[in-house]
Amino acid sequence: MNLVSALEKVKGIGAKTGEQFALAGLRTVGDLINFLPRTHDDFSKVTAISNIEPGKATIKARCEKIVTRPVRRGLRITTATLADESGKLQAVWFNQPYRETQLKSGEEFFFSGEFEFNYNRYQLTNPSAEQVSDMPIQTDRVLPVYRSIKGLKTTLVRKILAELRPLIMMLPETLPADIIKDEKLLSRSDALLAMHFPKTLDDIEKGRERLAFEELFELLLASQLNRQENAKLEGWHILFNQSVVKQFVKQLPFKLTGAQRLAAWEILQDFEKKTPMNRLLQGDVGSGKTVVAGLTARQAAHEGFQTALMAPTEILASQHAETLQKLLSPFGVRVGLLTGSVKGAARKTLYTAIAEGEVEVVVGTHALIQETVQFHKLGFVVIDEQHRFGVKQRQELLKKSQHMPHLLAMTATPIPRSLALTVYGELDISILNELPKGRKPIITKTWSPNSRAQLYAMVDEEVASGRQAYVICSLIDDNPDNEIKSVQAEYKKLQNSIFKHRRIGLLHGKLKSDEKERVMQQFSAGQLDILVSTTVVEVGVDVPNATVMLIEDADRFGLSQLHQLRGRVGRSIHQSYCYLITSTSAKPTQRLREVEKSNDGFYLAEVDLKLRGPGEIYGHAQHGALNLQIASLADTKLIARAQKSARLFVESGQNLLQYKQLAEHVHQYQRLTTLN
Description:
seven-stranded parallel β-sheet; 23 helices
C-alpha cells in the first residue's frame, strides 16, 4: 500500500463506498490522507445543560422535539428541544433539514456549538451532532470534521483513515531537515496524525502550523526561483531622459501625486537595468495608473520602443486609448486601438502601422496576442487588470519581441501585502495610495429596502442638478425562485414609474459588444441620466459626471467588489454618494459596515482577506489554483518565516530535486505564477 494506491484496496472500501469517495474527488490513498479536516469538535469537556454558559459548549443530550419550517424563499430553520437529566434547551439549525431525520431516533448525541442570545432567547446555534454510540472507544474526544462533498459522511472518512494510520506513521519527510529543526516544526507524518487523530487542541495547532508552513514555503520558493530565472534574462535597455519626462509632466493639466511620481521613477529606473522589469502597479480606484503608464510609454517611445497595453474589455481598452491619446499626442506619439470592433481595411492598415513602428503605443484587448499582430520593436508591455488574463495570454504577448520586454502589470484591486508577497512574490511592487488633489471622499450609507422612496428622491435631486447615477443589480433576468433584484425588472420599474421623467439606459453582460459600447458611450456623453447595470461597470468605467452609485442587494456582494463599484463615482470635484440597499431589513453585515466606514481600498482588502480568505476574493482560476488547504494568507508572521526559509534554501544552493514531492509542487507553482 502506498500513496498512489487506489482507495478500493483499503479494507472497508467496496465498490459503492469507492464510488462515494470518487465523487468527492478522492481516488487514491494519498488523496484521502491529504483530505484535511475543515474543523475539529472538542467533546472532551461535556457540560450539563443546567451549567451551560454563553460561548462554545458541548452537551450530551437527547432530542425531545424537532420541527423544520420555511421562513422565506431559500431559508429553512430546524428547531429542536434537547434534554439531559439536568434540564432542557433550544437548538437551531439553518438550512439543515436532514437534522430532523438524524435526531428523531431518540438516541443520545453529543452536541457542540455556540450557545448564544438570538431571537430573544439563548440557544445552541448550528451545533454539530455526533451519536454517542458512534464515538471512538479511546478517551480522547477531539474529533475531526470533514467537508461533506457530494454527501460524503465524516464517520466514513474517519473509519477509513483509521485503517491508514500505520501508513501515515511511515510517510517520508518532504521538507529539508535543517528547516524543520530551525523552525521547530513537526515531521510531516506527525503533523498529519495530529490533524486526523488529535489528542488535544494543542496537537491540532502544531499540525496546522507545520502543514501551513509547508504550503507557504512551496509557493514562496517558486517565487524565489522565478525571480532568479528572471535575473538571467536579457531585457531592452531604455535610457532615462530627464528633459523628456519633465516636458511630459509640465504639460499635464493637473499635478502628479507623490505616489505617482515615485511609481514612475521606479519604472524608469527598471528600464535602465539589464534584466527585464517585472513590476506590479497597484492603484486604488481613481488613483491615476494610466497616467503613470502614459509617462513611461512616452519615455519608451522617445528611445524608439513600442508599448503594448492589454485590457480585459473593449470599454476599458477604448478608455485607455482615449486617455493616452490626450496625454501623448502633443509629443507626436501615435496611439492605436486594436479590438474586435476594428475590422476590414482599418484593421489591415493598423497591422501595417504596428509592424512598421509608425504606431508607438498600441492599446487593445486579447486581439493584441493574435499571430497576425507583429511589432516593430516592442520594449514595454502593460497588462491592466492582469489577474483577468491567463498566464498563456500574457506569455503570447511577451513573445512578440526579440528581447524580453519590460512588463508592468496593473490592478485596481488593492491586494493585501501578505497576499502580494505570495501570489506576486517574483514581482516588484509599486503602490498608488493617494487620490488626485480636489477629490472628495465618497459618502457611503447603508439603507433598508423600506426607505427606498426617500432614497429615490435624493437620487432624483442629484440628477436634477445635472449629475448622473448608476443603479447596480446582481442578476440579468428576473427569477421567480429568487428575490434578488434582476437588472431587467429594475430597468422596467424605474423607467415606467419612479424615474419615467428621466433618460434611463440598460447594460449587462449578455448584450452584444457593440450594443454595450453604444450604451456606455451614451452614458459617457451625458445622453442618459441613469444607467441600470450589472457589475460589468465594476472595472475601469470612467464617467466623471456620475456622482451616485446605488447598489441593490448590497449584502450579497463581496467587500472588494462593493469598493470597486463605488469607485465608479467620485471621479471629479463634485461630491459623490454610494447607497447600499440591503436585501432584507436585518441589521447590516460587517462587510457593509466596513465599506461605510472606509474609502481606503488597501484597508478593505485586508478586512476582506480576514473575512473570506484568498480563494474567494481572487478566485482559484485567476491565481493559478493556489492550493492552500491550511495556510491563511492573513498570517503575516508565518509568511515571513516561510519567506526567510525559502530565501535561505535558494542561497544555500541545495538541490530541490532531492525532495521529490516538494519539487513537484514548486514546479507547478512556478508555471502558474510566472509572468515569463
